[in-house]
Amino acid sequence: MVQPEKLEIGERAEGADLVLSVEGELDLSTIPRLAQHIDGRIGSVGASLLLDLSGVTFMDSSGLRLLIELHHRAQREGWKLSLTAPAHEAAQLVLRITGADAALPFTEGPR
Amino acid sequence: MTEHRYDQENVPPAGTQALAFARHILDRAHNGAVMLDEDGVVTYWNESAERIFGLAGAQALGRPVAELIIPERQRAAHREGLRRFLEEGTGPVLDRRVELSALDARGGEFPVEMTITPFKDGKRWCFHAFIQDMRELRGGERERERLVVELRNALRGSERRFDAIVGSLADAVTIRDREHRFLYANQAALEHLGFDTWEQLRSTAPESIMRDYLVYGEDGRGLQMRDIPSVRILAGEPAEPLLIRTVHRATAVERWDLLKAAPLLNEEGEVEATITIIEDVTERKRAELRSAFLAEASEALASSLDYEQTLRNVAALAVPSISDWCAVDLLTGDGQRQTVAVAHIDPERLALAERLRAYEPEQMDPEQGLGLVLRTGQPLLYPEISDEMLLAAAVDEQHLELLRAVGFSSALVVPMRLGGRILGAMTLVSAESLRVLNEFDVELAGDVGARAAVAIENARIYSERSSIARTLQQNLLPEELPAVPGYELASLYVPAVETTLVGGDFYDVWQVADGWMVIVGDVTGKGIDAAALTALVRHTMRAASEFRRSPAALLEIVDSTLKKRSTTSVCTALCMRLEGDRVTLAVGGHPPPLLLAEHEIRELDAHGPLLGAFADVCWQDFQFTLEPATTLVVYTDGITDTLSEDGVRFGLGRLFGALEPLGVSPAADVIAGLSGSLGRFQAVAHNDDTAALVVRRLAADAGCESVIASTTVGSTAANASTARTSA
Q1: What are phi and psi of B179, to 5 degrees?
Q2: Handedness of CA B6, B9, B10, B12 (dihedral sign)
Q3: CB-based contacts of A12: which residues, under 8 Å, 6+ apart?
């Protein structure tokens, strides 16, 4: 079942860096939209992309998978990905359980 | 119907004051009503005229109408027309509806529709005009209805004038007495009912007119005389406007009419007669039906990926919108037809279709009918099916009888084609409705056929893919859990509802040299890819378990296998080795297991990174002893992520709550309890797999030989002993 839209994506530039701030739930129903949005921007990303997840209230394994794919892609293509950790417990959970909190490039660990 | 209350004082005294009463009604008529003397000077100006032209009656009365509402460029023509009428007695704009431009008080021009009727008041001519503001046309229907209700009383005073006004209406208007005989019909009504003169109509019995037509309601059901609004009024019933579809039996002409009726009361307030306005809405209704049908058909085609069900829905929609029968045939791989849907407005008639099908030849005739359409991809229209055609088609007497019983009157076969490929055809037959299918229907049905073809193709591709994925996934789960000595196992697996999203939850239990392996995992991904990945993970684990004892080592092997794949392939897994009461556990990005005992539930502190995702990571083995009558619950995030209707997640708290009372329950009861809690919580279909595996150590007195007495409780789990493996 398709859930109603539960995701908002904001965009701003900080110097040469692109900052995407994501608010809401990152799950199977919202991931395609975020992935598409990021795909559309990656060509224009200069040196770095900061994905601000502090407003993410929930994240499931498909959300995590997107982050991992982005991380791999940044390494492969030679640009810098930084992540701001979610402030919400429910979104931190999957990162903690999977060890992604330590392995992905969070600017400060989701504590 | 507009509701009118006529107070006692307003009932006209018979005869003499009838015109005064008519005037009283005119004052309140929704149409603008204006009277002029023979010099074109305004002698009457009702309230609606004030509204329409923005000009009070006091300002209008006594002034030439030309100065008030006629645009300057038309004034000369107006004066000339007036002059000629008075001299020659003719006028091109009289006694019919004409569209004109008018001026309002501010000098703005706007369109009006006007009926100007001359009449003689003593020796002088007067003119009466009804004015419809075309800007208000949307409300026109209600307004017309009211007009007639208002005018019906004027009829008593002056039938001639009534006819002068109503006679010019484009809508058919009839007045019938209590026995339903015609008292009056305007010109439009005569034409509508197919009569040349009023005398012909008056001498025809109303029932026989009804008998000339097949009459259906909007829902396609046959209507009787008693359903007609005017007849309902006479029966003392409320008479809502009624939309009917009529088919003239002799000519098969189909028409949609909107019938509106009102009672004509006598002075005692009894119904004396009924007045009916018949509005021909055929064109409007056809356009509406067409767009509604296409919208519904598109929705039905998109609603399900089960295409046979989808085609049944479409067939049901075609009846009775287009025809009385609709059959959908698909072309099978070997060139044969497969009838997937037959619909008829009367389900009892479907039996006829079944019996007819028995007569269908093994091989379709490629030169006619369905065979021809399936061969050429071109639609075929048989506007009229004659008895000769049935005779030619019948194989024997019984067949002919059957064909006649169906009563084919018209038929249409349209292809369902996608590009150059013909996937099947829709056959539409009109029978008892006598409707003649026409080019309009060919176009409409053709549109539906094209859309249906796309739906069929999508469904085929989809069902192939999803069935492969589903089959793979199901084969990845053990058919039944093996009996592990000293333990009791039970599992829950609820696949994602949307099969395109076949998730990758899996579990497996197998025996190794000195114990048993248990894995539960979740491959992130969809469909076939997820299923293939699941197979890879599971078989890698099974193979590696033959030469590696450490669950952490198995996770590491799976991790490096996943990393070798070209696409990001990640997986959570929880791997356990059971050796008697000794449990060795490693967790790769999976929710830690829950430990459940009497009065106790908690999450083991066992964590480790996701498999296939990160560089430079390692896993740990956690060792502990599982006490008798203690249960481990391993679950996937499909459980905690389960959504309620309000968008709330089931979460760990509810999971604890669901399991807590099950501390001493057998494994199967734990699963049943969990499943029940999820079911009660979850109102929306889940789009992720949900899996849980319950591993319960049997109580020492259960008499199982492999139960080993132990003093260690599960609470020391995570830190009992850890072995590190490096990545």
Answers
A1: -90, 10
A2: positive
A3: A19, A21
What sign for the dihedral angle of Cα B591, B592, B597, B598? negative
Domain span at residue A17 reads: 7-103
Report the gap between the CA of B526 and the closest CA in chain A (Å): 10
Beta-carbon separation of B609 and A100 below 8 A: yes
| A69, closest residue in chain B (CA to CA) | B568
Q: Give dist(CA B147, CA B157) in Å, integer.
A: 16
> Is the pLDDT assigned to residue B114 strictly greater than 80?
yes
Domain count, chain A: 1
Amino acid type, B211: R
Q: Which of B568, B572, B608 sits opposite A61 (nearest CB)?
A: B572
CATH class of the B1-138 domain in this structure: alpha beta
Q: Which of B223, B262, B216, B215 is nearest to B240 (CA)?
A: B262
User: For residue B615, which residues of chain A lie inside 8 Å, CB to CB?
Assistant: 103
Min Cα–Cα distance to chain B from A16, Å? 28
In CATH, the number for domain B476-724 is 3.60.40.10
ipTM: 0.85
Strand B97-103 with B109-121, pairing? antiparallel
Evaluate if residue B138 carries a pLDDT over 80. Answer: no
pLDDT digit string, tens, across residues B614-631: 998 999 999 999 999 999
Q: Cβ separation of A1 and B685 shorter than 8 Å?
A: yes
Distance from the B493 Cα atom to the nearest Cα atom in chain A, whole angstroms: 18
Taking the C-alpha atoms of residue A87 and residue B708, their distance in angstroms, rounded to an integer, is: 46
More confident residue, B692 or B542: B692
Residue A30 near residue A8 (C-beta atoms within 8 A): no
Q: Per residue in B47-106, pLDDT tens?
A: 889 988 988 988 899 999 988 899 888 888 888 888 888 888 777 777 777 878 888 888
pLDDT at B725: 34
- Judging contacts by C-beta atoms under 8 Å, the chain B residues touching residue A64 are 524, 570, 610
- Beta-carbon separation of A65 and B497 below 8 A: no
Whether A109 is covered by a domain: the verdict is no
Under an 8 Å CB criterion, which residues of A touch B?
1, 3, 6, 27-29, 58, 60-62, 64-65, 68-69, 72, 90, 94, 96-100, 102-104
Report chain B residues whose CB lies below 8 A from the CB of A102: 609
Q: Is residue A110 part of a domain?
A: no
Say which CATH number the domain at A60 has.
3.30.750.24
- E-state strands within B550-675: 571-579, 582-588, 594-597, 600-603, 620-625, 631-635
Which residue type, as a one-letter code, is found at position A99? G
Backbone angles phi and psi of B429, in degrees to 5: -130, 130
Confidence at residue B267, expressed as pLDDT on a 0 to 100 scale? 67
- CATH number (3.90.190.20, 3.30.450.40, 3.30.43.10, 3.40.50.720) of B289-466 reads 3.30.450.40
- Asked if the domains at B1-138 and B476-724 fall in one CATH topology, the answer is no
Residue A108 within a domain? no
Whether A56 has a pLDDT exceeding 60, the answer reads yes
Is the pTM higher than 0.80?
A: no
pLDDT at B498: 55
CA gyration radius for chain A? 13
CATH number of B170-280: 3.30.450.20
Whether the CB of B474 is below 8 Å from some CB of chain A: the reply is no
Helix (H, G, I), strand (E, B) or coil at B150: helix
Higher-confidence residue: B251 or B387?
A: B387
Closest CA to B558 of B546, B570, B541, B572: B541
